[in-house]
Write a structure and sequence with these properties.
single chain, alpha/beta, Rossmann fold, 2 domains, six-stranded parallel β-sheet, 14 helices, globular, Glyco_trans_4-like_N, EC 2.4.-.-, Glycosyltransferase
């Protein structure tokens, strides 16, 4: 089977992580995968896999000119490839994929939606209704938002994101990871893996960190060192966050590391992962932390609410509640240990890659059969 995959870019985000995992899996099963994106380090990862080829299209920016250029370039590629199926990730990639492949014989287009701003759902549903044969939502909350905005439920499936379960970090791994990252051996390390943009609310996390420092005073307030907060990612809010950190006098304990490819090392060094977002689908960073036994503090929004007590969920938009959640997890104890164990068990039972791949395989087959396809699996 020839699969054309489209996505805006292949950086460190959760959607990009999922695309890389699926491309590698399809290639391992003997299928031909062609990945079209604006590039990024994950594109370079999959480019070295046999059975996967890559194409650069200017999908990163949502402008009419870039969309037109993407359609022209992708259409020429599709004429050569003759894909049996197109799998697009998010709305812009779906629109471009449908416009580019329709002259190539109109292969079925599957669109996976990873989450959108609330105000974007009505317009998105209009595009998806015209351009996608079927839509996948990565969580029940995303599916509910799509249906509320008018998407036909018969054209919608929920397939949750998935991660590979890895061994929990050992003490030696943590020491080595912290040494590699130039972090002090003592004191907790708090990690936030997210694009530096409005919905992710790193500003709330910096406020919570300032509150934590105020509670510690000289560092002995709660019997532990203040520690280090790592903000990993790039985006339009970087300069504002740097200024917020400086104004709060937190430059000694807060580091903005930019975009990183070494997520495994960062998680090995961390005592807790924090995600203070205003909205989420089902974030891969949280699943990755759960899979390796790193406790999670996250806003009680979107797909995160479905994780139950496997993570510490806090009221969104509240720095004091976020600080309290951080303190609870960093204080440790039996409750935190049990919650972390439940999180690893939940990943194994519900978010395993084998489960996700089987669901997509079945959906691919249904789409191809529905259009008269008869390809080998």
């Amino acid at each position: 089977m020839r699969v054309l995959v489209t996505i805006a870019e292949m950086g460190p985000g959760g959607a990009e992580t999922l695309v890389a995992e699926m491309a590698a899996h399809l290639a391992a099963e003997g299928h031909q995968v062609s990945l079209a994106s604006s590039g990024g380090f994950r594109e370079r990862e999959v480019a070295g896999i046999g059975g996967v080829d890559t194409l650069r299209v200017p999908l990163r920016r949502d402008t009419a000119l870039d969309r037109a250029r993407s359609v022209v370039r992708l259409a020429a590629h599709a004429q050569r490839l003759r894909p049996d199926l197109v799998h697009a990730h998010n709305v812009r990639a779906t629109l471009v994929a449908r416009m580019a492949t329709y002259p190539a014989g109109g292969p079925p287009v599957l669109s996976t939606v990873h989450g959108l701003p609330p105000q974007s759902y009505p317009r998105a549903v209009g595009v998806l209704t015209r351009c996608a044969d079927h839509v996948v939502a990565v969580s029940d909350s995303v599916a509910d938002d799509l249906v509320a905005a008018g998407l036909d439920p018969q054209r919608l499936s929920v397939i949750e994101n998935a991660v590979r379960v890895a061994p929990a970090a050992r003490a030696g791994d943590r020491v080595a990871a912290r040494r590699d990252l130039g972090l002090p051996e003592g004191g907790p390390v708090v990690l936030c893996l997210a694009r530096l943009a409005g919905p992710k609310r790193q500003d709330l996390l910096v406020e919570a960190w300032a509150e934590r420092r105020a509670q510690h005073g000289d560092g002995r307030g709660h019997g532990e060192a203040l520690g280090t907060l790592l903000l990993v990612g790039e985006g339009p809010h970087r300069r504002a966050l740097e200024q917020q950190v400086a104004d709060a006098g937190l430059t000694a304990s807060v580091r903005l590391l930019g975009e990183r490819a070494d997520v495994a090392r960062l998680l090995a060094a961390a005592d807790v992962l924090v995600l203070p977002s205003d909205r989420e689908g089902l974030p891969m960073a949280v699943l990755e932390a759960m899979a390796v036994g790193v406790p999670v503090v996250a806003s009680d929004v979107g797909g995160l609410a479905s994780l139950g007590d496997a993570v510490t969920r806090v009221t969104p938009g509240s720095a004091p509640r976020l600080a309290a959640g951080l303190h609870e997890v960093l204080a440790g104890g039996r409750a935190v240990t049990e919650r972390t164990a439940r999180a690893r068990g939940l990943v194994d039972a519900r978010f395993a890659t084998a489960t996700m791949h089987a669901a997509y395989r079945d959906l691919y087959r249904r789409l191809l059969t529905g259009l008269g396809g008869a390809l080998g699996w």
